[in-house]
Amino acid sequence: MQELAGARLPRSPGRAITLFANAMTSQDASLPAFSVPPARAGNHSAEVVAGPRGPVAFYHFIYEARRGRRLLVLKLDHYGDFLIGLPALKKLRETFAADHITLVCGSWNAELARRLDLADEVRTYDFFPENAAFWTGRPYEGLRRFCEVCRGQFDIAIDLRADEDTRFLLEHVDAGTRCGIGLRARYPFLDIVLPPQFEQRESEGRWISIGPDRFESRMPSRTPFFHENDFSVTNTHLVYGPYILLPQASLRAHFGLRLVSSFPQLSRVKIVIDATRASGDEAVATGRVSWDHSGEPRGATLDFTNDDPAALYEFRIHARGRPIRSRLRFFGVRIEQIGGSTARFKRAELHIGEQLSQLADLIGQRMGSLYSPELFARRPASFEMTGGEASANRIVVSPLSNSELRDWGMANYRRLISLLLDKTDCCIVLVGSAAQRRQLDRLVEENGRDPRITNLAGTTDWFGTAEIVRAADLVISNNSGIAHLAAACGTPTLAIYSGSHQPQEWGPRGNNVRVVMALVPCSPCGYDKLAECPNDHQCMQQIAPETIADRAIAMLAGSSQRQPRPNPHPARSAGL
Q1: CATH number of the domain at 207-338, out of 2.60.120.260, 3.40.50.2300, 3.40.50.300, 1.10.10.60?
Q2: Cα–Cα–Cα angle for 18, 23, 28, rounded to 5 degrees
Q3: Could you read off the pLDDT of 374-411 as tens digits, one per residue?
Q4: Which pTM does this prediction carry?
């Protein structure tokens, strides 16, 4: 089986085969140029399917409301730091009261942990010596000892330490979900990540960030966040600029680069970076970049000294070679002032104990439901959906959002409604604002004014819309408030997302929620307006009505087996 270029492969090879079998047919001779989402990460899983117009990913936003999960919590600090983490440990105990928690701590903290009833089981491992003065920077007890202490399978593994020196230990734990503080780029094995308070504890004013938009670029794909080259442009300077003044100091330039490739170390691409003084094109530093197994750069920094306050500096990236199925991303350059007597620490915004409590709270939210069951409890609706048999599936469709960039398009919704009416016993209810009613009327007309379609746009407020949503068997929507309302109501929801927003960041959450997103190389783009899109809205064009119809019908079948239907004959309310 070929590997998808840029893919983050699932941990299980069997799962990888199942996942990618749907994304590629045996006749595919070339690999698609897109990144595949991980099969499981945090509070969601992803399934890739080959749609008629191209591959799409279905995100399943699920949580496991079950008892008896097994948690492993690493708290390997010294005594004082262990005490700082007590609120976070107690929060985990409260959040996962019905689950089994194994706490691994330094031997000197074990008795305290047992007396405070912080876990169901306490194990000891000394990553540090008890006296920190004897710390050499290496584990006091070896990695083999750690693996023996943390043997077994766990649902969740957490490193409850703010500093990142113990984070690598989570790679050696057999756990479904790994959690900690750090940067995802640095710790790709983490599923739930709380960003650190500081990327580096350096003083204010010691960093100068230069975004990719400030550089001249020959890379064919450009977004506000990064530029990307598929090596159709090579053997030249890809990036150069921006000719800026720098402080008189010893400086270090960090080039934000990433190579997206199945095997970055074997890509045979030669990337050279340099820093020059614009006057006379004098090179002050140059270096060659290599790559680790995840595509992160090695040697992507240049050290130099600026002794001329009037000099303008340029930073350049030169590429040579045409690696197959590889892409280079450029995120900009950061200039660090090194040396000097400036204070080391920034002004602290959060106490370390608060950061650890934030991590514990984040894990609780990710592993549980976003909405409480009482928020929009299911109850009989005060209106009647007409146009079908009492046993017909009731599908609410919200075709319009407040942004054309997020809209799937009326032609797609017209075809979808036609497919649903043909393939399943259902009635369709269109919802929207009063200003959208005329557009939704056209959907009714284009489907022959089928009596099974009802347009309720503009006939009710948000509270009334919540009743409509609660009574539905399925809600289909763009990235809009209706999708989030349906998820909060506990109604099965199928949301269609463009490349402007990532579902794992902005998607509706719930056990019965699915979000579909096309796998295109320009996503996520970060654009706000359709006019800014340089790729003809490919992220929405690639999602076929047949793909949505098939998934909707499957969700309807699963929903009818899981939950009782609400009263199909409530009294009709005035105004509807």
Answers
A1: 2.60.120.260
A2: 115
A3: 565 554 444 555 555 667 899 999 999 988 999 999 99
A4: 0.61
